[in-house]
Amino acid sequence: MPADISSLVNKMEEYIKKNAQGVSIQDVARQFNISRYESVYVLGMLIGSGKVGVRQIGPVKLHYYKHDKGKGGD
Questions:
Q1: H runs (alpha helix) in the chain
Q2: Residue 13: inside a domain, yes or no?
Q3: What is the dihedral of CA 4, 9, 12, 13, to 10 degrees?
């Protein structure tokens, strides 16, 4: 794993936000020049925090940013 994991998590979160259609594990691995295993690990952290959702399209899992619905007022 990269030494500064929190920096990678933040960068990955921004990358996912910019790609509204969703990104695959392989897209993330290529973008950040990390292994697919490492990308799965960090994506799992983002999914666990509730910031990223996953939808299955055929054999591919697309990861997308979850908008904060219902926050900020009544």
A1: 5-18, 25-32, 36-48
A2: yes
A3: -150
How far apart CA 74 and CA 24 sit, in angstroms, is: 35
Regarding pTM above 0.85, the answer is no
pLDDT tens, residue by residue, 21-68: 999 999 999 999 999 999 999 999 999 999 999 999 999 999 999 976
Structural domains of the chain, count = 1
Could you tell me if residue 72 is inside a domain?
Answer: no
Q: What angle do CA 19, 25, 30 make, to 5 degrees?
A: 80
Which value, in Å, is the radius of gyration of the alpha carbons in the chain?
Answer: 13
Domain that holds residue 38: 5-65
Round to whole Å and give the CA distance between 61 and 73: 33
Give the pLDDT score at 61.
95
